[in-house]
Amino acid sequence: QDNMAFTGKYEVESDENYDEFMKKIGIPNDIIEKGRNFKIVSEVVQNGNDFTWSQHYPGGHSMTNKFTIGKEADLESVGGKKFKATVKMEDGKIVADFPNYHHTSEISGGKLVEVSFQISRLLKNLKIKQP
Fold first, then answer.
1. Whole-prediction pTM value?
2. More exposed terminus of the chain, fewer Cβ within 10 Å: N or C?
3. Phi and psi at residue 30, in whole multiples of 5°?
C-alpha cells in the first residue's frame, strides 16, 4: 500500500441506494433530502498509517475523523453518533465497523470508492446449514 495512496480531495460523483441506506441507519427524511442533492467533498490526508478523513458539506458543515490503522480511535458516524472503533487495512481497503453499518474505502482508477452496508440486515440473511 502506497504511503499516501488515499491522500486527496474527492467529490461525490454517484451513489447507489442512498435513500434506502440512510433510512436504515436512522437518518431523518429532511436530512436525507438535503444530502441527496449536495456535492459532498471528502478530503483525506494519509501519512503512513495515520489518517485525517474529513467530509465537507455545503453550508460550511464538516465532520472529521482522525485514526491510525490498527489502533482504537474515537470516530463519528454519518448520523453524528460518537463511537470507538479500530480501523483496519485489508487488501488495500480501509475497513471500519460503525455502530450499525460496515464501511470500506479504496482507491480504484484514481477515484475514492466507498461502500457501506447495514450490518443487521446482512446477519438476518445469514443461513447456515449442517454439513
1. 0.74
2. C
3. -65, -35
